[in-house]
Amino acid sequence: MATGFFDGIERVRYEGADSTNPMAYRHYNPDEIVLGKRMEEHLRLAVAWWHSFAYEGGDPFGGSTLVRPWHPQDNMENARLKVDVAFEMFEILGTPFFCWHDADIRPDQGDLAGNVAKLDEITDYIAEKMEHSSTRCLWGTANMFSHRRWMGGASTNPDPDVFAFAAATVKSCMDATKKLGGANYVLWGGREGYETLLNTDLGRELDHMGRFLTMVVDYKHKIGFEGTILVEPKPQEPSKHQYDYDAATCIGFLRKYGLENEVKLNLEQGHAILAGHSFEHELAVAAADGMLGSIDMNRNDYQSGWDTDQFPNNTPEVALAYYEVLRAGGFATGGTNFDARIRRQSIDPEDLIASHVGGFDICARGLKAAAAMIEDGGLEAARRERYAGWETDRGKAMLASDLESVAAKALAEGINPNPRSGRQEILENYVNRFV
Ligand code: XUL
Ligand code: CO
User: Fold this and answer.
1) Tell me: the pLDDT tens digits for 88-127?
2) 104 touches ligand 1 (CB under 6 Å)
3) Among this protein's residues, is 111 annotated catalytic?
4) Chain centroid, CA 27 distance in Å
């Protein structure tokens, strides 16, 4: 039976770029073939349970603005209603995937056994819903940052009992993700970092985090979970410093603990900005090491300096991001999760749908622009040209040589390299033809 929450809102359809209907897709056309594959299969778009259904509109200065029939979120009846509404929204949008934290879907019981039992119960209900839906689970994760027990970290907490609570929580979330057929399991270390070095044994905490992740990987193999384990970099907020600072830091961490072939990265646009990088930089760093797993798509306000988790709406940024994804061969188990929320004044059910319509559309537009650049080949040709010297026998032999021999040859040949233009503006103009 319908909940009535989205009464009056029709299923969103693709109407083409000329449509002026604000509740229609102008670019997101799931069946459109892009580089030989359906658009839906390229993008693998996912709705985030925490922003779309659990977020109540609070900010550091004020509480709830989004009044929903499933509030307060402290009992199973409301948790089930929230599931019903979620699947109605998935249907309206034609969403291929969703993502969740345990805390988004089950009411907090205040104790471990209660939380695990309620998670099991609500994920049984979600699994039932999935039998009548084509929407799948992209990933599950554990919220180990909101409750006060996590204030000093989860796996990096100085108290071994908190480590144990975290281990039991992640185990239950991995079990639930497997039950729901999840394609990935994500770990974002919200409190894995420090507020002050004065009370922190940084080396020990990193070792504990490495050990924890190794236990997660071992458990994945034990239960035969076929999804990918992903870690999500973020430099700060909520902690002053977080250990999973950015893609490069995470890759170094994974290598140190021997996990580089087991774990990939879930990269987020807003987190890249907080780390002082562009999103495409983070994606390129991960791709260069074969660790680009999945993305959290959103946008930060460039003035505020906070992680504002807005819906993306900037075509050039999104196009350059998908360009890196396509260059890396596209998503395998990963996808595009909207780690994005409506603003606290956007209180109508219609706002919730419209935000996703815009998000789906901008990703589709970015993907098409990226695909057109790949097909045209202009950037790759320019890159090939720039590094052509390294494809010659001379270039290859040098890399296999040693410092003394290279120096002797350089002197003997009397080389005097001629600087060549990096052609940056020409390439920027080129990109502007597509976006
Ligand atoms: C927080 C954030 C998280 C993770 C999942 O900044 O990005 O929502 O994506 O825990
Ligand atoms: Co995220």
Assistant:
1) 999 999 999 999 999 999 999 999 999 999 999 999 999 9
2) no
3) no
4) 22
Contacts of 100 (CB under 8 A, 6+ apart): 48, 49, 50, 137, 140, 141
Q: How far apart are CA 255 and CA 244, in angstroms?
A: 13
Beta bridge partners of 48: 99
Distance of CA 32 to the CA centre of its chain: 24
Q: How remote is the C-alpha of 271 from its chain's centroid? A: 10
- pLDDT given at position 167: 98
Q: Which token pair is 375?
A: 């097909």
Residue 311 DSSP code: P
Q: What angle do CA 257, 258, 264 make, to 5 degrees?
A: 95
**Is there an atom of ligand 1 within 6 Å of 339 CB?**
yes
Using an 8 Å Cβ cutoff, are 169 and 187 in contact? no
- Listed in sequence order, the residues at least 6 apart from 434 whose beta carbon sits closer than 8 Å to its beta carbon are 319, 369, 370, 372, 373, 376
Structure-derived torsion over alpha carbons of residues 307, 312, 315, 316, reported in degrees to the nearest 10: 20
Specify whether 104 is catalytic. yes
**Domains in the chain and their CATH numbers?**
33-376 (3.20.20.150), 392-432 (no CATH)
pLDDT in tens, 42-82: 999 999 999 999 999 999 999 999 999 999 999 999 999 99
CA distance 170 to 190: 14
